[in-house]
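Tutorial, part two.
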Amino acid sequence: MSWLSSLKSVFSPAQEVKEDEIQTVLQNYVLPYSENGLKDRISQVNVQGRILQLTINTFPQEKDHLQKIHDELAEALEKCGIQELNLHVIQQKHAAHGEVGHSCSSKPKAETAKNTKLPPVMDASAKVETDPNNPPIQKAAPQQRDIAAHPRIQNVILVSSGKGGVGKSTTTVNLALALQKMGLKVGVLDADIYGPSIPTMLGNAGQTPQIENEHFVPLDAYGMAVISIGHLIGAHNTPVAWRGPKATGALMQLFNQTLWPDLDVLVIDMPPGTGDIQLTLAQRIPVTGAVIVTTPQNVALMDAVKGIELFNRVSIPVLGVIENMSTHICSNCGFEEQIFGIGGGDQISEQYQIPLLGRLPLDAKIREHADQGKPSVIAQDAAAESFMNIAQALLEQMEKLPKHQKDDKRIF
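Running the prediction step on this input gives:
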């Protein structure tokens, strides 16, 4: 089997939305306490990514059954690739002939059932007109407390930033290597689907993992288990032109379908921003905590704050802030200058009551060593000690997490 064929077998069609099966579910669903079919009530069906918006006509006496309708449909549609069902209702004043509420039972005429056609399933973002007195019923998103721990991974740490270009990936690999030097078993997952740089920074770009029983065998980098979409797409100039649902599906397969060894910590290099991948991780992967990387620059701080707010909303503890490119020392004259400003990390630390884990200099050697696949902790350049201190500070914050969270997340 070729590598491309193996890859296709792992990124299986099961992750895609199955429109034919959606139609079948909607066609066959019978309303609670009635023999009426849902298909006779549907006025609009919209699919956007893996979210389905369904608009139906209802009657006053069915009000108490709407949640049951939603939950049963959501469970059935989940098997069709739908992650979220938004049920919009348009309440009718009186039941039409042949339509009943929950207190009666009436079977539609066979001819009507045979000739009824559902509206087409559309991939669209069109707004749906709804009754303001009957807001959409939405299935609650999974919470961190509801997500089971990975059987072989003790802790998952996210390294995140609000924007790109702040040195997040460089920080990720050095932080992982520093934790390993402290005696922990560490793995790295590159969740930056659109701009994977971990393979280059860890010196294994161009390598591809083996597949065993439709699971990836992670690559080795300085003794760490590593996997990235960059290991799967071939040439460096191959773009990942995927819409959000496909990108998040790929990420979940990298996490769930990789044969991770027993790990104390899995460090995940996050993409910049607060989009689909961040929300997917928050709702489907058991996360111990997050680290925010920023520069002192105002623009970077504004975006870093958005990242912190997102993690707060999804109940992921922010374990600290790392201020990168904090200061620059001229290699010729030794003059020290704060190119991107002063005190940005302190500002966020004070505002959100989270620790400043450390500061990193703006040093050409950090970039050079990362480009060569030998990060600072391996190359032992001037920044290596700073990364070791940051790793120690991170472990101290992990130990301070509440006991119930330690039990849930299995912190060592």
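The CA atoms of residues 209 and 217 lie 6 Å apart. In part three we will examine how such features are distributed along the chain.
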